[in-house]
Design goal:
mainly alpha; Methane Monooxygenase Hydroxylase, Chain G, domain 1; 3 domains
Amino acid sequence: MTKTTSTASPTTTTTHERRTKWRSRLIVALRTVLACSIVGSITLYGPDIITRQLAFPAYSYTTVILIVTDATLGDAMRGCYHALCATVQGALPGLLSLWVIGPARLTESTTALAVALSAFVVALPESTHLICKRIAMGQIVLLYVMAFVQGAETDVFMHPLRVAASTAVGAVAAVLALLFPYPRLACCKVKKKCNLFAENASERLSLFVLALCSQDKTSALASLSQAQLLSKTGSKLLQSIKLKQVIKPLEGSMQWEKPWNRFLQSHHNNPGERVQSLETPMRGMEIAINCCPSFPVRVVDSELKSLLQRLEEHISLTLRHVKCSLPSDCSSTVPETNREEVYKSFHTFKAIFPTYEDLPSFFFIFCMKILYHESVMTQLNNLATNTKEQTNSHKHDCLSRLMGLFSNERLVFALKCSLSLGLAVLFGLNFNKEDSIWSGLTVGLGIASTGEATFKVANLRAQGTVLGSIYGVFGCFLLQRFMTIRFLSLLPWIIFTSFLRHSKMYGQAGGMAAIIAALLILGRKNYGPSNEFAFARIMESFIGLFCYILVEILLQPTRAATLAKIQLSQTIGTLYECSESISLNSIEKLKENKQEELRIQVSKLGKIIAEAEGEPNFWFLPFHGACYSKLLGSLTKMMELLVLGAHAISLLRESHGLGVAWKDLLEQIDGDLELFKKMICSSVDCCEAITSMKSLETLEKELRMKNICCDIELGKSPSPDQFKLLSANDDEMEMFLSSFLQNSKQFTDKIHAGEGELKSQVVLCLSALGFCMEGLMKETREIAMGVKELVQWENPSCHVNLYEIYCKIQSKEFVGR
């Protein structure tokens, strides 16, 4: 049976992807336009009794922009909840403070102090969402600064209520914009992404099979390059799906849409897990083709080629049936006869144990089997079960959250927010009392999380503020006599900045600053001449940014390069834990949790590296982006191999129930795995320790101060035999793999001829396990080389030996106990 494979060209796929992105972003932009139009209609043309209470229309616009950022209805509803929480943290305590102090008693210093103390309280809890913190800090600035500016004329009770009302109008407008003309639901967005992912996976599968069956390396590389382009699209789709799924209580946008989901009879489980289970074997197939030593592949004869084409056809059919991510839509299933035919195809595979060169092709077939199994048989846990597990773990989390409230990291972050906001208000009041709120709002509304780069965010916000202010002044100059048309001139700018937020040049921070700057000029009235207001606001914004950067430099400069090194160390540490969990007797749930944690850490590392590459260096050491990118690639590959290796071990366990001489195999594999773990974990632990140290110079200084001598020959340091992977010699690795393959072959030869079905499965699993171990050892060596290059980059005048550095770190820790 033959099948003609037809795949979309990369140009067609890229064009389709661009159109989809353009359409999605345009829809978001139009929703933002609608929300801002609602606010503008109420604040500019509403009845006097309403407009008098909405004293801060600029803050209503700002609230809209904070909430409607690629938002769905669930995101907007969650944003309303955050606005309510922010009002409880900002406006309500402010009312009590103003009532106790009295607006007439406020001075520049006491106003700045009150803002700083309130900001510290808001910033300290880790559980509070970043949007909630931003809205609350904006309310704090408006409350105290405007109370000081107006003095005794300030109504202690109505002033906080007007701030809260302005916030509420923005939040409600955001929800209405996501409701009309039809609700923009996260579940519908996820369903569409799942459909696109299924099509993407089917196209990639065809290209992978085409590459493996190629008669020359040129054809194989051509198919592989097309598949890699599709892989990038698949990764983006996967991330988009995961962002919308339920992760924590009150955080997932789909969780806020439960009433709509019930109405639409769309009961989600966890689409992110399902799509991830399909993505992992696809990644394994890509790795296998990259590792094929030559083409045509030796084991791919006409019989195997026919088998691969049949499997591809069945898997593509299955993917079409499971395109939808909603169980309610998946009423159609693949016929049972088709499933039996597929599994028989696997059983007819010749169970000849592979040589070292054949491992990649056997691993490819293993991944195809996993892909089919996951696409048909994956049963997701019921959402209620997940919710129950989260409820049970919530009690345990309360204590950890309470302890984390006073952690050093949280205190430093809260202190940064407090000082930067207080100084911005103080300097802003001294520069221009009437427009001083903008210096504080620049800091409060743009406060970054603990994991964001200071200099990059400040730079983008400064550029966005200037760009938006220039557009606003230009619009006022052209349309100064026509208020209605002047407001309408905002609409194209909102659409433009919605696309700007997704650009590398400006990002979310710069795009939001640009749109807010224009809104504050064109969407206002009674602020005086637009050019004077724009100039004053730009100056006040720069005062706020100056204070923000000054505090960061004085306390703890959070550069993206610094964050990248910290995240690298954490990722390698998680990799160590995952490597330690490799065992035949490990608990599956615990192992899966560690693998998911590693996936999260690798994803964070990738984002921080991208930020660091676009960050200005100033007087700091330049960021070694090439080295970090290589390390990220090795970590990503190890992450996938660990998951697929665990699959192989799980399938080998099933052989016990089929009558295999499990005891012999258990002893053999267990011994090999222990030796393998010792080789991997010692090297990974070494890399983690080295990346977590501040610097080589600091380590040497501490050793001298404590008079610590690291004498390797006296046996006070780890044995060098544990770190064989740190050397460039491949003999040890090849000897281990040869021994594993030889022992495995001897075992499979003992399986009786009547157990061909079982022998096929065991051969595939052992081959996959051998390939994964080989890949993990190679990538561990690559990580060690990358860490060495990184340390050498930071210490160009020193000779870097990872083993010696690790011994020094161990000696210091031993003395410190």
